[in-house]
Design brief:
α1 packs antiparallel against α5. Strands 1-3-2 form a 3-stranded antiparallel β-sheet. β2 and β3 form a beta hairpin. The mean pLDDT is 87. It has a single domain, classed as Arc Repressor Mutant, subunit A, CATH 1.10.10. By secondary structure, it is mainly alpha-helical.
């Protein structure tokens, strides 16, 4: 039951963030360090950020042309990926 509540909470959070992105796109943008902190606060290893990008689940943007320029992520995308992973865990545990 706790897994389902977590999934619903995560999905609602992703939906709200998607709405915010539609209203004010700048509020949805987070730097890589902030995205890593967000994942860590959710109990997810920050290394997953790179793995999700490699899998095509996240689409980061660079703010400039240089190697050291900031990498920006969409918080709505991150929350959607978290919801999808939680759903997959629930489905895998059901069988």
């Amino acid at each position: 039951m706790h897994d389902l509540l977590s999934l619903v909470s995560s999905a609602v959070s992703a939906g709200v963030q998607d709405y915010i992105r539609g209203i004010n796109p700048d509020q949805d943008r987070v730097k890589q360090a902030d995205a890593r902190r967000f994942l860590k606060s959710r109990g997810i290893q920050p290394v997953m950020l790179r793995k999700w990008c490699d899998a095509g689940l996240l689409h980061p943007n660079k703010t400039g042309e240089t190697q050291n320029c900031a990498t920006i992520y969409s918080l709505a995308e991150i929350k959607k990926v978290i919801s999808a992973i939680e759903l997959k865990k629930i489905c895998n545990n059901s069988y």
